[in-house]
Amino acid sequence: MNIRFKFMKYRKIASLISISLFIISVLSLGLRGLSLGLDFSGGTLIEVSYESPVSLESIRNSLEENGYPDSQVVNFGTNLDVLIKVADQSGNSSVGEQIFNILNNQETTIELKRVEFVGPQVGDELRDQGGLGMVVALFMILMYVAFRFQYKFALGAVTALAHDVVIILGLFSIFGWDFDLTVLAALLAVIGYSLNDTIVVSDRIRENFRTERVLEPIDLIDLSLNQTLGRTLVTSFTTLLVLFALFIFGGELIKGFSLALIIGVLIGTYSSIYVVANMLTSLTL
Q1: How far apart are CA 115 and CA 73, in angstroms?
Q2: What is the pTM of this model?
């Protein structure tokens, strides 16, 4: 028996950390809510093309001076193409034309590529359907793990997934990061990633319960976590390499997506070790 790391020795500390983060996240979501992006809040998207590179900060300043202080300005594809997102303004159906006129008054010649409007009703539907998708995913996972293993493993897996999703949402709420469809897609990806890690750990624990009957439950769980630790760290490390590359070089459009996945991989790795194992320890002892 080779137990190098006594993970369960710190399970009470880990429980306090998880419960504290969960409560803080829930309070922040209840009091502050999420900073919804254009996909959910509704608004206008304008894409323009410049003849020569232009400073995004100068565009932001021009828009702010003309009554659009909360607009998002990013490069789209090349440094000549600019994507502008403006929040919904009730009663103003010509936002795209007004912004184009503001920018067209500058020295550089620009070309209007497209103007798209997303109504708040569409945003509400996207939000509701996305939330429903997450709930259905968690329920199906609960059913699968309960069928594949036991109800104890299923409770641990779903608790870990809910823990990961709520904390990610809480961090987006606390720091005021924009929550759009790409972040929602990242949350669904986190559910799949975290579940995969949880299944590996749960399967090892189940097998050891069959073969290592002389061990105490805590020692058996520690043994299982040590046996899967190498695989968990290698998988998380290689995944994070790709995600950090996307976060640094991928541009503003997918920054929220990559950020949510980075947080999800880190928290998912932690939860597959401590949240799942803590639940199994509590239900076994």
Answers
A1: 14
A2: 0.79
